[in-house]
């Protein structure tokens, strides 16, 4: 039985994932559409403007021809219904998405066609130089998913995909629906039915984790998990990484030898929920543990289930709870008050692919 010796400090939910991915396709407030667009090598959010951080040659409307292919340079570019920031967002395109110039311009705003619709963006967020971004693999996580001809349930089903089907994300999103290529067919589905980086199969992940329970390291930090990653550090995070690798979803967790680097990567991604409640935590999530006096997380494990004020984890680099000092992989009960943060592996994979 765990004894709670101090009340836990108040923490705040991380919002970095959403803030970090959404890029507003806009000119500085109060600037006319005919003014020069901001340089695409800048970074920041001054006056609501944020642009691509990579040094990418941008297009000039005067040099484009109707039907020419262009590519998005913004991290998550909001394209609008008309050539100003006052128009509603019509489609979101992630860096590397392909579009076609329609031939229509207004000042420094450009109209393109992508995802079956026409929308406007400042020319500074496009390039005529074809990039070579990595393909974004997605896995179907619903049973017999009907993917549709358009971004809404009113469109006809074009193709049906079984759980575990692998497809490719086109980097185009409308109203929470993603345009993907599945079984050689382009079709739309809500993003919630997909996992980026492969198939997030909770049962498979937990089976791999549970099959390791009872393993004991032969000597201090000498174990098969550190051997796998070629490291010799404290290995609780390495165990989590090993499990996800062997469950065919390595994209769901950072790949780091050292715990501090693992935590830093999660903080960079903005995926840590630091005010988790029992009702929000799901099997297959990963938590960071922080014991009294709560100076920061020092341990991590994979969630099996939550019951009342306790959470059950599969952990590496831990003791068996009997008082024995040997370390290994064990099924442990922890107090919810000691959970510093939780993250969903699918959210980390999404951030890592789209950043």
Attribute tags:
355 residues, 6 helices, SH3 type barrels, endopeptidase fold (from Nostoc punctiforme), seven-stranded antiparallel β-sheet, alpha+beta, elongated, 3 domains, disordered N terminus, 19 strands, five-stranded antiparallel β-sheet, single chain
Describe this structure in words.
The protein is of the alpha+beta class. It is built from six helices and 19 strands. The protein has three domains: 16-127, SH3 type barrels (Roll), CATH 2.30.30; 137-167 and 180-196, no CATH class; 202-354, endopeptidase domain like (from Nostoc punctiforme) (endopeptidase fold (from Nostoc punctiforme), Alpha-Beta Complex). The strands form four sheets. Strands 2, 3, 8, 11, 12, 13 and 14 form a seven-stranded antiparallel beta sheet that branches. It is elongated and about 75 Å long.
């Amino acid at each position: 039985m765990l004894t709670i010796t101090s009340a836990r400090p108040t923490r705040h939910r991380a919002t970095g994932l959403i803030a970090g991915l959404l890029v507003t396709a806009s000119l500085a407030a109060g600037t006319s559409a005919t003014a020069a667009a901001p340089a695409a090598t800048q970074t920041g959010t001054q006056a609501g403007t944020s642009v691509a951080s990579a040094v990418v040659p941008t297009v000039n409307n005067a040099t484009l021809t109707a039907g020419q292919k262009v590519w998005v340079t913004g991290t998550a570019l909001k394209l609008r219904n008309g050539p100003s920031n006052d128009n509603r967002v019509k489609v979101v395109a992630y860096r590397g998405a392909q579009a076609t110039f329609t031939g229509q311009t207004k000042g420094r705003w450009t109209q393109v066609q992508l995802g079956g619709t026409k929308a406007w963006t400042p020319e500074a967020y496009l390039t005529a130089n074809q990039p070579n971004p990595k393909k974004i693999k997605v896995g179907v996580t619903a049973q017999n998913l009907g993917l549709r001809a358009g971004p809404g349930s009113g469109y006809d089903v074009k193709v049906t995909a079984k759980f575990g089907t692998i497809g490719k994300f086109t980097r185009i999103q409308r109203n929470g629906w993603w345009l993907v290529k599945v079984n050689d067919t382009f079709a739309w589905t809500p993003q919630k039915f997909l996992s980026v980086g492969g198939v997030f199969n909770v049962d498979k992940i937990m089976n791999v984790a549970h099959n390791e329970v009872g393993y004991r390291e032969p000597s201090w930090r000498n174990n098969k998990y550190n051997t796998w990653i070629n490291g010799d550090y404290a290995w609780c995070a390495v165990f989590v990484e090993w499990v996800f690798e062997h469950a065919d979803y390595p994209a769901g967790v950072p790949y780091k030898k050292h715990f501090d680097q693992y935590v830093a990567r999660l903080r960079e991604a903005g995926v840590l929920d630091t005010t988790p409640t029992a009702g929000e935590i799901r099997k297959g999530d990963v938590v960071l543990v922080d014991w009294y006096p709560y100076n920061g997380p020092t341990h991590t494990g994979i969630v099996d289930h939550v019951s009342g004020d306790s959470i059950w984890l599969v952990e590496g680099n831990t003791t068996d709870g009997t008082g024995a000092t040997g370390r290994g992989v064990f099924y442990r009960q922890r107090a919810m008050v000691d959970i510093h943060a939780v993250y969903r592996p699918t959210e980390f994979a999404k951030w890592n692919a789209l950043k």
